[in-house]
Amino acid sequence: MKELKILAVITVFTLITYIGIEPFAHSQMNPHTADANFDYEQEDIDLAKVRIEEAKAALAKAEKALEKNAADENLINAVEGAKKEVEARESDLSAYQELWAQASAIAALEGNAENGAELFAACTACHGLSSQGLESPFDAALSSESYGVVVPDLSLAGAVYDKKFLGALIINPAQALKVTKKFNDENPLPMTPFFGFGEDLNQESADIIAYLQSIAPQNVSGKEVFETACLRCHDVRYDALYSPTEKNALKGYMGSNPPDLSIMIRSRMADYLESFINDPQKKLDGTAMPRVGLTKEHTAQVVSYLEKVGDSKKDERTAIGIGMIIFFTILTFFAYMWKREVWKDLH
Question: Do 153 and 71 belong to one domain?
Fold first, then answer.
């Protein structure tokens, strides 16, 4: 009986640690964020509003501290900085509302793929379409040296990227990719906005999107989606995939070399990766990683691919784990019965 009491005490303290302390520690290290939202317009507007409220809360805290010590120069500077942050966040909201209003207008138009093919000629100065026999004028080395990252081939763009996102990307790349903190008027993003050929800019953008969709394959594998959306920066050594971008150039472009994603599925799990791919800024505000704009379906394909590569033994491991739990449960029962038989005359 004493052993059962000891087991009960250990079980209670283990549950307190696991159910109470561990989730609290996790919540502090990884604050909760909203689930991935593939309505990118709503995603951006909702997140911008959250950031405004956070900035206003920080401002109120700074002003309250200043009330207690109005002569403190550091507190005065903190309040001024907090005010500027509120203004910047409100400006972000306005910029996203403007961007998505135009992207929605583009998405509502019926594009002309034939005209889009002609307009796409403006994009071939940098981009390739290998599926159409058009290679980029920049090889990996020259692209790395010129831009810091290899220019993407757009053969699969019409299949894997959200249509409205493509519209936003064409008219304002830095805003659509959510890298405006890094790239601005003083440090412009290598990809420039599409200014059109003097006709209706929205219609011309819709035509280019229609062309990209017309040449895109109907079925794309998870590995192909990864190669299109992620491989320019990330390696997957477990599948012998290596970024074609020169490492020093990539480090200068991103600020640090992006991680190899071979076992990322084990450290971050599927839900986290889906949310991070959907909007890196929501999980890690200020990160240099751009949003890629994949559809929900193709984001799931990337996560599935990373799981297949980085955790190929998951099903086997799960089956073994269940079997071991059953085995030790049975073993515990027989060990207890044997203990009672051996010690029954001494109790």
Answer: yes
Cα–Cα nearest to 246, from 237, 238, 236, 235: 235
pLDDT at 255: 87
Share of the chain above pLDDT 70, in %: 95
Number of H helices, E strands in the chain: 16, 0
Give the span between the Cα atoms of 252 and 247, in whole angstroms.
9
Q: Are residues 242 and 290 in the same domain?
A: yes
Is 124 in the same domain as 259? yes
The pLDDT value given to residue 245:
95
Cα-Cα-Cα-Cα torsion 85, 87, 93, 97, nearest 10 degrees, comes to: -150
Count CB atoms within 10 A of the CB of residue 22. Answer: 11
Residue 134: strand pairing partners: 129
Residue 212 CB-density burial (10 A; 0-12 exposed, 13-18 middle, 19+ buried) = buried
Task: Look up the pTM and report it.
Answer: 0.82
